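User: Some background: our group keeps a shared notebook of sequences we're curious about, and every so often someone picks one and asks for a predicted structure to add to the entry. Today it's my turn. The entry only has the sequence so far, pasted here. Could you supply the structure so I can complete it?
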Amino acid sequence: MASVDSVRRMHPDEPVADESIADAQVRDELPTDLDVAATMGDYVFPDNSRRRIPGYMYLFLGLAALVVVAVADGSALVNGGFLVGGAALVLMGAYHLQAGWHVAFDEREALVAATRAVGFPIGHASAQMAWRGLRSRPTWRILLYSNESPPDRRGLVLVDAVDGSIVAQFDEENPEDWSAD
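Assistant: Of course. Here's the predicted structure to add to the notebook entry:
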């Protein structure tokens, strides 16, 4: 049996009407800001160009550290760490700026491109954002199945999220045996 005090701690705003509340009646609730069922609308994948914001901040802080080294060289408060840290921040900022690609093709457009590439009608499909190469170019990984039940074919298509081109494509007869299901 849950005590009245424990129920008050879990729900301090709600009055407790009965002194003998059964454990089965006490339930955890998901906060409203974390309830996925309450959200309305589609999920919009964040644009990769947001990487430029920390890139500019790293550049600014790195250049500021390098200016401090140039101005206060020989000071007891400035040592070689400022030079190494400033150079590292400048390099990291430059990397973030060049890797901040604008995602021009969302997952729906990538699914359409993948459907055209494999050439069979799509049933179930899944899209995942991935990054490829040293410059972290955003790429959609589209896993798809044909629309039969059970699916006869499956495929994996990589679609460039910047220009919509097909990077790689693989499709085959579905080797999974679903006859026991």
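Suggested note for the entry: The first helix runs from residue 4 to 10. The beta strands are 122-132, 137-146, 153-160, 166-173.
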